[in-house]
Please model this.
Amino acid sequence: MTDDAVRVRGLRKSYRDTVAVDGLDLTIAHGEVRALLGPNGAGKTSTVEILEGHRPRDGGDVSVLGVDPAEAGVAWRREIGIVLQSTADGAELTVAELIGHVARYFPRPRGLDETLALVGLADKRDSRIRKLSGGQRRRLDVGLGIVGRPRLLFLDEPTTGFDPVARRQFWSTVRGLDTTVLLTTHYLEEAEALADRVTVIADGRVVAEGTPDSLGARQVATVVWRDGREQTADPAAVVARLSAAYGGQVPGLSVTRPSLEDVYLDLIGGSR
Amino acid sequence: MTTLGLGSARAGIELRQFWRERDAVVFTFALPVVLLTLLGSLFSGVYPGSPVTSAQYLVPSMIAAGVASATFVNLGVGIATDRDDGTLKRLRGLPTPPLSYVIGKILLVAVVTAAEVLALLLIGVLLFDLPVPSDPSRWLTFGWVFTLGVVACSLLGVAASALARSARSAAAVMNLPYVVLAFFSGIYYTPVGALPDWVIRIGSVFPLKWMAQGFRSVFLPDSVLPYEVVRSWEHGRTALVLTAWCIGGLVLCLTTFRWRGRQTS
Model:
């Protein structure tokens, strides 16, 4: 038994002659929001679908809420929530009808009004799902994922195709949830905004893991001035020293830290 | 909730979606009704040697076609759509007993089929003066032909749903074989005995021809028998062929059914 929400060791999955997941390890604590980052084809969706019990694996040990998803039944499914990558079901139903229907599968679901408020769809209650915008449809999907009060929520590329305003609304929805979340995304800002920890995968393996601001070598800043450059963990000290040396103004001074995107591109580039 | 409770909840959702989906209502439900009204009004005349008018002859055949539409076309399109739009994937991610999905579909088919038969029967009685039999043995015949026909066509519809690549193509993929088969089964072309021999031979392989013949035996007098393919209602053969299709349909379902669409690997 394990106290972790998710524990994966040596996960493997191949499709014919391509290896999608190649010995992946992943541990997610209860209450954590974890982002799984990686380029297209890195094995994110395969991994998540194996954890959701949607896909069989070729090898490795997987425990999700203490249960192997490949053998999990209805009782386990009551504990998890899944927000799929793209959906178009229930187009002719109203928002309230579909949420109300999905709620019936769970022993103690959230109320309709509470769910609608959490995902910001209270004013769309009686709208046909067909008429929702892309962002509203995704928020409905999240509503369907959380209506059963899951202990673990899977969000697979939840904001692909969103405009910036819709993305920010969606982020505040996710921040308002009190549950363990496994999120896949290829938006770096999204991982930074939501995740407690980030796991970067490339070619089916973990290439880095950490908090968004410690990932890779992000603490190391680069100080550049007219006559030189220096990498340091303490840029203030370097600037103070330079300032003293130049007697005030340091010509052409800049201090930069690598963005998460720089670190990420470096990580996945390095694995190629 | 119990599997049965969830099954009836699914039926409620399925029925609401069916009646709100214009394509489903127009193609699956209204087409047989419109065709019966049109063809019944166009055909005129009485079959010599019997009191049966051309329109009355058409009604039981169209009831068979309506049952096939409400089962075969309805399930084929419905399941292909569920596979394509993510309904099945969502259900597999929820604590759903698979049986509750099946129960939902069975109840959907039961309600739509009953409404279809009732609508066609009403048109037959009100527009074309079709006499409603009072002999209970005829209703007994109706009962078993209906039951076997519904089961056989439903199972074939479930199996055929795998042929449609997407929700959008499903209506076309299901309706073409249905319309062709209805023609080969002597639904639109009356009386059935006047069809070319090779057409009858092909039609006789499939359940629709036998279901139509069974329903004609319920609603039409024996004096119309000379216009059938053979001068008998062939109840024994009807039961045999329909039962064979129930078994064959079940085998096809079990071997071809896919929860996933084709595009997902």
User: Anything to note?
Assistant: The CA atoms of residues 36 and 184 of chain A lie 5 Å apart. Chain A touches chain B at residues 15, 52-54, 74-75, 77-78, 80, 82, 84, 86-93, 97-98, 101-102, 104-106, 144, 148 (CB under 8 Å). Chain A has a mean pLDDT of 88.
